[in-house]
Amino acid sequence: MDYQGMPQQGAAPAPAPVEGEDFSATSGHPLAEGLTIAGEEPVIAALKTVFDPEIPVDVYELGLIYKFDIDDKGGVKVDMSLTAPGCPVAGELPQWVADAVSGVEGIGEVVVTLVWEPGWTPDRMSEDAKLALGMF
After folding, report:
1. What domains can be seen in the chain, in order of their start residue?
2. pLDDT, tens digit, for every residue of 55-65?
3. Which residue positions in the chain have pLDDT lower than 70?
């Protein structure tokens, strides 16, 4: 998968999540014992590589990442949302996030859960995202 939002040729589309129902994506493997666990900064940098293909701003700056937690074994749990339940890449975007974060050195298994509450609004966007989209 290309993290700019373009599926690889021949890749089957993921099923679309249904608003109000749990939907999650996983990537990576448990981190080997003794390895140094990554901090928040490299995880945020990885999140900033994932874009909704219809919006030229990454998912982190858009405010789609509600929270993430790194456990003491290097596993990461991410809660994220979508700008709209009918987003054309709704079935793929959580997997793109999971794949990007699991690629960080010092991160093991990643679970990304799509959440619907609270609903996303443009107020969640960073100032940089608002500026990039001409919302000032």
Report:
1. 23-128 (3.30.300.130)
2. 889 999 999 99
3. 1-21
